[in-house]
Specification:
This protein has helices at about 10-15, 20, 75-80, and strands at about 25-30, 40-45, 50-55, 65. With about 100 residues, it is of the alpha+beta class.
Length: about 100
């Protein structure tokens, strides 16, 4: 799928077909323990048995069958290198080093 669906209903119809999607129901919803993402479990009865999908809400508002990427802490090195505080004249001195005059 090239563009992600923003509508959960459209995504359920895409996976199950329009007729089966009419009888689908949300059985669980909530968020992960660390509140990284929201999820919805949708179930539908099929002739072969019950079918369940878990959809995850992504930051841009789309729903997918896979969870969003885990948000990791990050440092922005480019900003700190370009700042004047990161120049050689402002490098902190360690014990025993002489401070340039």
């Amino acid at each position: 799928m090239g563009t992600r669906e923003k509508s959960l209903r459209a995504l359920v119809e895409n996976w199950l077909g329009p007729d089966a999607a009419k009888h689908a129901r949300v059985t669980r919803f909530g968020h992960s323990r660390r509140k990284q993402w929201r999820y919805v479990c949708v179930e539908a009865d099929r002739p072969s048995g019950r079918l369940a999908f878990v959809f995850f809400r992504h930051d841009e508002g789309s729903w997918c069958v896979f969870p969003p990427e885990y948000k990791r802490p990050a440092m922005n090195i480019a900003r700190s290198i370009s700042s004047p505080a990161a120049s050689a004249d402002h490098i902190p001195q360690f014990l025993g080093d002489e401070v340039p005059g």
